[in-house]
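Please fill in the sequence for the structure shown.

STRUCTURE ENCODING:
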């Protein structure tokens, strides 16, 4: 009798020391009595290793994708869901009959988690970072009708500012600030995006996609100025549940 589980799921990214997915899905499978299913972490530094990983694990039915592979994974997929195509980033792969289909459940998770906190003054957003996660954030906010600009180290587009350009006037104009960088993530909990926090006010909403620690340095600095703060834990739960819905729907 084969020792292979009936269905295997996993996470690809590098490094994976910060990942919540393995614990989340292992507990979910136990709690919901989902038998013959396992979830594993696959720390792959280079996305070129993906085809071999798929080959070595024939019972793989789905993969979560995290930093730094959300964009570079796309050429290795056979198909893209409409939302993933529009965003240009993938964080969920469904494997059916050897075919790899890419989805973006980050957008779903972010939308569900930020909606309760949005107020009328949050009409413009500064998104810190330009990686795969920031694309899902922009997609959701634009859909809601919020104007988005990015803050990055190296400006490559018109809707981008460098960190040096963020000043008092800008922070007065942008009342929603989303950290889509890994800055402040465990174990580097003392780091945070370099913006002038002294100009943050109680009318600001600071949202951090990082969930570990619960209160990052970015959020602490915002809280000290009276701003509303939200971390990325709810987003992670929502995107994980949406990924499971995709994997378990035939």
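FILLED IN BY: designer on duty
SEQUENCE:
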């Amino acid at each position: 009798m084969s020792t292979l589980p009936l269905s295997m799921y996993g996470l690809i990214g590098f490094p994976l020391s910060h990942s919540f997915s393995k614990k989340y899905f292992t507990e979910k499978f136990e709690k919901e009595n989902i038998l013959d299913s396992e979830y594993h972490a696959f720390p792959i530094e280079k996305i070129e290793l993906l085809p071999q990983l798929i080959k070595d694990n024939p019972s793989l039915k789905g993969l979560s994708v995290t930093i730094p592979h959300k964009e570079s994974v796309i050429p290795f997929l056979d198909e893209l869901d409409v939302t993933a195509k529009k965003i240009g980033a993938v964080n969920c792969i469904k494997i059916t009959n050897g075919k790899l289909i890419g989805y973006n459940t980050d957008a779903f998770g972010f939308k569900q988690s930020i909606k309760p906190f949005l107020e009328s003054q949050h009409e413009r957003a500064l998104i810190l970072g330009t990686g795969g996660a920031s694309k899902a954030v922009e997609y959701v906010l634009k859909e809601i009708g919020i104007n988005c600009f990015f803050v990055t180290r190296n400006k490559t587009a018109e809707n981008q500012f460098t960190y040096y350009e963020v000043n008092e006037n800008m922070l007065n104009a942008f009342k929603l600030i989303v950290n889509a960088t890994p800055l402040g993530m465990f174990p580097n909990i003392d780091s945070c995006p370099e913006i002038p926090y002294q100009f943050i006010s109680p009318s600001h909403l600071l949202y951090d996609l990082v969930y570990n620690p619960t209160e990052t340095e970015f959020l602490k600095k915002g809280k000290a100025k009276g701003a509303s703060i939200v971390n990325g834990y709810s987003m992670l739960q929502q995107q994980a549940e949406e990924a499971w819905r995709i994997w378990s729907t035939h």
